[in-house]
Specification:
With 168 residues, the protein is mainly alpha-helical. The chain has one domain. 68% of the residues lie in helices and 0% in strands. It contains 8 helices and no strands. α1 packs parallel to α3. The radius of gyration is 16 Å and the shape is globular. The two termini are 12 Å apart.
Length: 168
């Protein structure tokens, strides 16, 4: 239990550091900024109580907001993503169900399952994030354009970061 907690804290710190120090300063095509920190919320254990899941997601998003100066946009997007996660896990559940201590990963559930799972949660996160961003401006078409581009780019990068999640 203690080693799992240390492992999750290490993952959180690693992903936050990569997000804040590296990825927030890099923009592809002028405005695309990948968000890898959401993988932390995606990879939390399946049987984690919803209250803890929401608190962890809010804390993760708030930390990114603090370092990115985005006034709570990431916190709200992470909360909505974490709220939708248990329903998505129920929909995508394998026939035998999930193991008691399992976390969603390519290693445990397969590449196709994980791609559907990660793409769905990434879409939800990005949709909410860009909806909040565009909410203050009159350009609602920008919402769908940004969401599609970020979702495609983030989903394509999950297979490159899989070794991080196989630690432990």
């Amino acid at each position: 239990m203690i080693t799992d907690l240390i492992l999750f804290l290490f993952r959180l710190l690693l992903l936050l550091a990569v997000q804040v120090v590296v990825l927030n300063n890099i923009q592809f095509s002028g405005f695309i900024n990948p968000f890898v920190y959401i993988m932390f919320v995606m990879m939390l254990p399946v049987r984690l109580p919803k209250t803890f899941l929401l608190l962890i997601a809010f804390g993760t998003g708030l930390l990114v907001d603090i370092f990115s100066n985005t006034m709570g946009m990431h916190a709200v997007a992470c909360l909505v993503m974490a709220y939708a996660r248990p329903s998505l896990l129920r929909i995508l559940a394998p026939r035998d169900g999930y193991e008691a201590e399992s976390s969603p990963s390519v290693k445990e559930l397969g590449f196709t399952w994980f791609l559907i799972y990660a793409s769905s949660l990434t879409f939800i996160h990005h949709f909410v994030l860009f909806y909040i961003e565009v909410f203050v401006s009159p350009s609602s078409l920008l919402l769908f354009e940004n969401n599609f581009e970020f979702n495609c780019y983030s989903s394509c990068n999950y297979d490159k970061s899989i070794p991080i999640w196989q630690i432990g």
